Amino acid sequence: MRLTKLGVVGAGTMGKGIIRCAAGCGLSVVFCEQTEELVQNALKDISDAMDYEISRWGLTSGEKRLIMTRIEGTTDLRNLAGSQAIIEATAGNTEDKQKIFEDMDALFPEETVLISNSSTVAISEIAKHCKLPQRTAVMRFSHPVYQRPIVEVSRGHKTSDAAMSVVAQLAKVLKKKVIEVLEMPGLVTTRVMVPYINEAMQIVMEGIVSAPEVDEAIRLGFKLPVGPLAMADRIGLDTLLKDMERLFRTMGLLQYRPCPILRRMVRQGHLGVKTGRGFFLYDEHGNITGAPSDACCNL
Q: What is the domain partition of the chain in residue ranges?
């Protein structure tokens, strides 16, 4: 089967990244959001992000126009019909994801492979109400999707070889190196990343050093392009909190228990790049412009 069309459910941070990557690799992409406003916001965000790439000589205007012609948004899940694969990339809880998969299972023919981008909810759990769980799998992308060369894939206990073949084909089209992982909470990247970020937050909360100093120490000390707290801001602090809570609930290990500073920042609406403020301050392109003047460790 030749892949020509991809469906995406959810156009948040990861959803938009998947849409941008797939369209940039030549696939027609139809994405579904809950309201027309969210659809238009997603299209604008994708367009604006590519304008920024153009300003930095990473893309041409002609390439942007071509990519945008391949992207269509909708509020009706049925408009994803004709997709050879559909990726769910929502920020909902387990029950929300189960409902989405149950609806897709009823709407689309059995040859359509249904994929979740979740790393903390097992696909066997997400697809447990599906009549055809053998066509379900996980593809966990790293953010930003179009810049990261890997994808973690995982099969449920009923996933067929045919479904995994489509997953492998999709990864090849998207130019991603496949890391196949057993069906365990967190897979690889999330499971390693969460304690790393959590400990950096704990250091800030204890007042040992400031957020910029933590990131500078890690970046320079280990020659990394981004520090743990800037990484958290890019992921989205609300998304990170949900991932931590799921891992802590599932595995019961203290390293996954969310640091109190994270809960406080999410309550205050400081969610990172997408709100312009997290551990750092950001401009409309997601560039760091400084750090909040109020100390994050004051709980």
A: 5-180, 190-290
